[in-house]
Structure formats: C-alpha cells, structure tokens
Write a structure and sequence with these properties.
By secondary structure, the chain is mainly α. Helix content is 69%, strand content 3%. A two-stranded antiparallel sheet has the order 1-2.
C-alpha cells in the first residue's frame, strides 16, 4: 500500500514546527532575561546612588548646616551692638584697632561675655572641622572642594590663594581664629583678612541639600513608576 506523500511529510512538518517554536520561545526567554538583568543592574545602580545621597545628607550636610546655624547664632549675639565693620578675626589680631562708636573713632573692648561666646564659637567650629576632615568624601560640589570663586554680593572675602575650596578656606579660618584667640597671632590684619569666616559657606551647603533632596525625590518617583509597570 502506497502512503500519500503528505502523510509522509507530517513527521518532518511537526519537527519543523517544534524547532521553530523552541527557537522563538528561547529567543523570547533570552530577551526577557536580558531585560530583567538590565532592570536589576539599573535598580542596583539607583539603590546605590540613593544610599550615597542619604549618607551624604545625614553624615555631612545636615551636621554641617546644624553647626553653622549654631555658630551663626552665637556670632550674632557677639556682634549685637557692635560697629558694622567689626570682624572677629581682625579684631583679635589687632585689639587696638578703632571703630566709629557714637561718632568717635575709638577702640572696642570685649567683655567677659563676649570672650565666653568666642570660646563657644571656637568649640563649635572644632566639631565642624572634624566633619569636614572625616566626611568630605561625600562632597561633589567643586566650589566646596577646590574651585571657590567668592561672590561679592554675599561675602567680603578677597582671596590671594588660588584653587582653594570653601571647606579648606573655612578650616583655615577656624585655625586662624583659634590661634588669634589664644594670642599666638597678632598684628597684620591685612595678611589674614582673607581668612575671615566665608559667609557663602552656609549658602552653598543649603543649595546642595536642596539639590540632593530633589535627587532623592526623583529616585523615589522612579521606583514607584517601575513598580506600577511590573
């Protein structure tokens, strides 16, 4: 009995169909695996970025801002009622310099309360310096690290040194202030004028906090969108 040709071809056709199904199925699985791997890698990258930002905020930026606010409050108490051109470092370097007081140029003498406030300020700055020295690895803003250009609308700092960041400038200020308070630095106020407190520092710290908070919100929104797409 002769078997029809089409019947003889059935096993071959089935084999071809199975092979085709297997190929396309494996291709789909491979593509899905690649998409999953890419998503996993991206999620890991985002999670790492999120952890870095949270650490930067909690270990560097928030403590820094807190110490700066305390120091600023103490400094306002110290300068209350004093001439507008009073600068602490300059005064400690040359206590005999004169100011316009009640229409007369005369020296300004610090009270015992003033001296206690200065001691407190120096102690706060020592804590701030420790944060700068141990946690600056979290800082990515070049103006804080090595490329600070003073903004004359905010600060009266005039730098002779180049390629210095706000953090290094602040540390130099802390040390000059401490040495002047201890009486180890005296005289030429012009030489040390650039090491008065950099008023732009709190501004830059606040700007970076706002920037990092926005990045965290963006990351959170990204995770929410990925969850909705699952």
């Amino acid at each position: 009995m002769t078997v029809p040709v089409w019947v003889a071809l059935i096993p071959s056709a089935v084999a071809i169909l199975i092979a085709a199904y297997t190929y396309f199925h494996n291709k789909q699985v491979l593509a899905e695996t690649k998409r999953h791997n890419r998503a996993t890698v991206e999620e890991a990258r985002i999670a790492k970025q999120e952890a870095f930002i949270e650490s930067a905020l909690s270990e560097f930026y928030y403590p820094t801002l807190g110490y700066l606010q305390v120091s600023r409050s103490l400094y306002r108490l110290l300068t209350a009622g004093k001439p507008e051109d009073f600068r602490l470092v300059s005064h400690l370097l040359n206590p005999q310099q004169t100011y316009e007081i009640d229409g007369i140029r005369q020296p300004l003498f610090l009270s015992d309360s003033d001296k206690s406030l200065i001691t407190e300020i120096i102690q706060i700055e020592a804590k701030l310096e420790d944060v700068f020295l141990t946690k600056s690895g979290f800082v990515e803003d070049s103006s804080l690290i090595h490329e600070y250009e003073p903004n004359p609308d905010i600060t009266d700092v005039e730098l002779d040194v180049k390629s210095i960041g706000l953090i290094s400038l602040a540390i130099a200020h802390f040390r000059v202030l401490r040495l002047a308070h201890e009486g180890q630095l005296k005289g030429d106020t012009k030489t040390y004028q650039q090491f008065v407190f950099p008023r732009e520092l709190p501004v830059k710290i606040s700007e970076n906090i706002e920037k990092l908070r926005k990045q965290l919100n963006s990351i959170s929104n990204s995770f929410l969108e990925q969850g909705e797409n699952l």
